Amino acid sequence: MLQRLATFTCAAAFAAIAIYISIVEQPSRLLMDDRSQLLQWASSYPPAMKIQGGLAILAGLSAIWIWFRSRNALWLIGALLILANWPYTLLMLNPINHALMTMASSASVETSRALVEQWGWLHAVRSLLGVIAAGLFAVALVRDVKTQPGAAIAAT
């Protein structure tokens, strides 16, 4: 049961960070002038990428292991959703990430505002994937506790 709780916690942390970026950091960033906006994005993206990437992998792989042992489909569906952030990011966000990082290092801000705005909308999909995965893990966790009440006590 402890692994299930840790998996849910990783997914919830991923979702919380993604939501924070989408509803706090990105709107604040859009109020800045183009150069400041680009520099702020370039300084905040790398650490967020490392944290969120690790959380997605931990939650996803752990959920697959839980599904393999329990055959509760909610764990597998949640795993696929949280792990979908990786190919989604590589295919949809990485071209924009690369363009923005290149602009930030070259002091060129032409078209940066449009790219930062586009990045924000695409990042919102990551928030949605994280929220749905965490929600599925929460439901699966509650169901598992209901079907295995002794396991919850033994894990504490």
TrEMBL record:
Record Pfam families: Anthrone_oxy (PF08592)
Source species, domain of life: Bacteria
Protein name as it appears in the record: Uncharacterized protein
